[in-house]
């Protein structure tokens, strides 16, 4: 049973004994987590009743942490005009990563070409200089 909460409703739960956070526009009840959180209670209290997406993602939480998160979901956030904007526009999905991968693949091919051409040029220069030295002697 998934609820829809407004940002104002989430903000009303910002104390240790009643702590909601928003991550990727879903609302989580982090109350039970406060005492067990490996990152400490302070960081959770800091984002209590607010959008914690950026803080959560910046830490680079493990898949296990994401599973814990799934167990805490209570509903979806309904953004209303005037509410704070999403901190991070979209979760980094595997398809995004694949896209980035192919881009860096292109870049890598370019870099290889550069290294090979650079090597060839250096070899040519070396040979040329050697030849000149040879003529001088
Ligand atoms: C309600 C959502 C959250 C859940 C379910 C959660 C869960 C966890 C878990 C399971 C770990 C252990 C390491 C891992 O598996 O990645 C962890 C570590 C950590 N978390 Fe969170 N966390 C949440 C929110 C936050 C937020 C908002 C912050 C803010 C900065 C934060 C900061 C940290 C830090 C700094 C660590 C690393 C601790 C260490 O490696 O010593 N977490 N969290």
UniProtKB/TrEMBL annotation:
This protein's major location comes to: endoplasmic reticulum
Give the stretches traversing the membrane. 109-129
Please give the InterPro entries that the UniProt record associates with this protein: Cyt_B5-like_heme/steroid-bd, Cyt_B5-like_heme/steroid_sf, Cytochrome_b5
* Assigned keywords, A-Z: Electron transport, Endoplasmic reticulum, Heme, Iron, Membrane, Metal-binding, Microsome, Transmembrane, Transmembrane helix, Transport
Q: How does it sit in the membrane?
A: Single-pass membrane protein
Pfam families listed in its UniProt record: Cyt-b5 (PF00173)
Query: Positions of the region Disordered?
Result: 77-105
> What are the recorded GO MF terms, alphabetically?
heme binding; metal ion binding
GO terms under cellular component:
endoplasmic reticulum membrane
Q: Which residues form the Cytochrome b5 heme-binding domain?
A: 2-78
Database matches in PROSITE patterns? CYTOCHROME_B5_2
- Report the Gene3D superfamilies cross-referenced here: Cytochrome b5-like heme/steroid binding domain (3.10.120.10)
Entry coiled-coil feature ranges: none
BP-aspect Gene Ontology terms: sterol biosynthetic process
Q: Where in the cell is it found?
A: Endoplasmic reticulum membrane; Microsome membrane
Q: In which residue ranges is the amino acid composition biased (Polar residues)?
A: 91-105
Bias regions of kind Basic and acidic residues — which residues?
77-86
Top-level lineage group: Eukaryota
The family line of this record is:
Belongs to the cytochrome b5 family.
PANTHER family membership:
CYTOCHROME B5
- The name of this protein is Cytochrome b5 heme-binding domain-containing protein
